[in-house]
Amino acid sequence: MPGEVLDEVLSRYQELPTRSHATILVVSIKGIGMEDFVEAMLQMDTSYSTQIRTTTSLPLPKQTDSSEPRPRIDYIVFIVDLSNQQSFKMIEEAVKLVDVDYFLGRCCFILSKAKQEHLHSVDLNEVTDLVEAYDSTMFCGDLTNEEERMNLVEKVLHHAEIACGFCNDVNSLLLSTTRQSFTFEEIMTT
Amino acid sequence: MATRTPETLLNLDRLSLNNEFVVKTPLTQRRYTPYTKSNQRTQVLTKTPLPNFHQKRRAKTQEAKLSGRQQRSHELSNDKTEDISTRIVNKTWRVYRVSPLYSFKTDAKSLKLYEKRLNSFLAVETCRAAEVQSRVKKKALFTKLEGHTDGDYGVEIKIMTSEGKENAAKEELVAVLCCGGNVNDENLNILNGDLTSLPVCLIKSSVLLKDSFLQWLENQFGCRACLLLFSPTDLAWLASLCAGIGEPTTSVELTYSVPAVIPGLDTIYFKMDAKDARRIWNLVHDPKQPCFTNEEAVRILKSMETHFYHHFKVHLNQMQLTTVGTSVAYIGQEGRIKILQEPYVCYILQQLSQLANF
């Protein structure tokens, strides 16, 4: 049923954009520090209002209540805990149900516990291959660590701000096109 | 808002690399943050050669053991070298990974010299540590060990203490510095003449003495030693590898630690008859292939986890694998190992060397 599958794909063009308001969708399984991350994100001081929606898997359930429609999702955050195989499996399934438009700089992957290599249950190569295949931004940090979490929150909000078009002179497409060359330079210099 | 340049926005995640626990899986090339791929690094299909003697062994284990022992005793009388397997088997060790040693030689003369140096170092240390126990005398002993092939060799270091005039000396520390086979040819090529690569150090001792011994080792040979921690990926790989080799005598045991999110449950202990594990292994692994691939390892463990889910409705892939026990070896996440079957000591050491090497 191609029609049904198409219905499940999360697209940016199903809803109308909102003014000075960003909606961020966090895709993550429970118990890997997602709650703290969202909490920290809400406490950040931003020039625009943010709404954060969380889900433990995609596709999103069908909207039953038509009086309060789901807002347009401007930015998607995928969280992978490297010490949890299930989280990676879920993300692998979830990215298939996201519209290609989001991968033009409107989503990011967070690799939690990247530094604690002795806890890795997921092969890091597999994760980086996935991120590379979708050509998206990747942030590393430990969500259970206060300091690193705040760091990640700042970065994610920054990207979300651009993705929503609140930043002058920069848009997400510029971001995603220049990302590769910058990383390449980084490798060349180090 | 306008002052922000794209460069600052594109600031990739950079984490400091002063990582205390550096562990590498044999399956992957070690990569540093920000984990982006460079052009030189190509993905290689990971294969591990299986020990080629295990079919032969099974047929005539008794004979082989006997002749092996005779040979060894013969060797003993002739030379000072000893077999590495007998020294390591059936003991619980802590595994340390050691960077290449500078100007380390294994001939008898140099070993004598190291003995002397370690003795004097220990004498100073004990004097400094406690003046009460000044009567306790520590004595070091170096012995060269040999394995099945030319590639496997090691050096055993023993520190004995003798109190006063009593003759009965107690073994306080046993350390085996060893190298398993011709594992990493490219790495050996990088090393120039002055460096010797003995990447694995197995230590059995008290914490205090171990610390001072490692301090001496680091100062003497300009190397760095740190605990080799096994990540769940490593453990899963070792478990499925060990399930397929050796005599299936005891059971295959997997211990999982449950994340703190779930209250009231700490560990899950999963035990399975070794013969059943072997049957799974034989189903997955093609007997004609001399190598064991990563994919096969993943499939074996996954099938076990699926079986567990079928009965208990618990997703083991959300848990952390902490200990692995097979009939060949017991391996703990915190770097503890016990090898139970003598013929496979060298093979396991090879795998450890691979883990410890970059």
TrEMBL record, chain A:
<keyword id="KW-0137">Centromere</keyword>
<keyword id="KW-0158">Chromosome</keyword>
<dbReference type="InterPro" id="IPR020987">
    <property type="entry name" value="Centromere_Cenp-M"/>
</dbReference>
<keyword id="KW-0539">Nucleus</keyword>
<dbReference type="InterPro" id="IPR027417">
    <property type="entry name" value="P-loop_NTPase"/>
</dbReference>
<dbReference type="Pfam" id="PF11111">
    <property type="entry name" value="CENP-M"/>
</dbReference>
<dbReference type="GO" id="GO:0000775">
    <property type="term" value="C:chromosome, centromeric region"/>
</dbReference>
<dbReference type="GO" id="GO:0005634">
    <property type="term" value="C:nucleus"/>
</dbReference>
<protein>
    <recommendedName>
        <fullName>Centromere protein M</fullName>
    </recommendedName>
</protein>
UniProtKB/TrEMBL annotation, chain B:
<dbReference type="Pfam" id="PF13092">
    <property type="entry name" value="CENP-L"/>
</dbReference>
<comment type="similarity">
    <text>Belongs to the CENP-L/IML3 family.</text>
</comment>
<keyword id="KW-0158">Chromosome</keyword>
<dbReference type="InterPro" id="IPR025204">
    <property type="entry name" value="CENP-L"/>
</dbReference>
<keyword id="KW-0137">Centromere</keyword>
<keyword id="KW-0539">Nucleus</keyword>
<protein>
    <recommendedName>
        <fullName>Centromere protein L</fullName>
    </recommendedName>
</protein>
<dbReference type="GO" id="GO:0005634">
    <property type="term" value="C:nucleus"/>
</dbReference>
<feature type="region of interest" description="Disordered">
    <location>
        <begin position="50"/>
        <end position="81"/>
    </location>
</feature>
<feature type="compositionally biased region" description="Basic and acidic residues">
    <location>
        <begin position="72"/>
        <end position="81"/>
    </location>
</feature>
<dbReference type="GO" id="GO:0000775">
    <property type="term" value="C:chromosome, centromeric region"/>
</dbReference>
